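Q: What residues go here?
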């Protein structure tokens, strides 16, 4: 083989090698992007799953708290405390408005209007609400609100 043919073949081999290296670099970058995307999706699904499970456990916590209001049992108080501790660790925060606080429809649900105090203020907490990561309300706090009730007319 001639020297020029060898140089030509060598140039072709170098070009092919450069092309393969470039393809390999792209494949590795695509794989790395896929790995990162899968990891992000896994985190999103884990958070979503935690929200779903916690939301399903809220009625059980309500039952325990209702029982505690009547029983005043120390063991039950510890169980409720542990429940709330786990919820806090999962990013849940209790919404527990106090009487006199301004009604906020973003986090409160008015279940009844009552006469008395300043219109638009919370009169009484009926059931606490829960928020996830201070961004998403899982359950609005159910409250009685001061306001004008519709009077029934006598016929």
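A:
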């Amino acid at each position: 083989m001639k020297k020029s043919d060898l140089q030509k073949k060598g140039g072709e081999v170098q070009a092919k090698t450069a092309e393969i290296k470039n393809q390999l670099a792209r494949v590795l970058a695509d794989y790395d992007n896929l790995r990162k995307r899968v990891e992000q999706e896994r985190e999103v699904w884990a958070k979503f799953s935690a929200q779903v499970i916690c939301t399903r456990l809220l009625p059980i916590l309500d039952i325990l708290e209702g029982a505690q209001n009547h029983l005043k049992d120390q063991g039950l108080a510890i169980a409720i405390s542990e429940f709330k501790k786990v919820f806090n660790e999962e990013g849940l925060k209790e919404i527990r408005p106090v009487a006199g606080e301004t009604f906020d429809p973003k986090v409160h649900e008015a279940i009844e209007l009552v006469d008395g105090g300043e219109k638009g203020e919370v009169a009484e907490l009926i059931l606490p609400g829960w928020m996830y990561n201070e961004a998403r309300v899982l359950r609005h706090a159910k409250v009685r609100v001061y306001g004008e009730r519709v009077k029934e007319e006598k016929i």
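A: Context that may help when evaluating the design: The radius of gyration is 31 Å. The beta strands are 92-95, 108-114, 122-127, 129-132, 136-139, 141-146.
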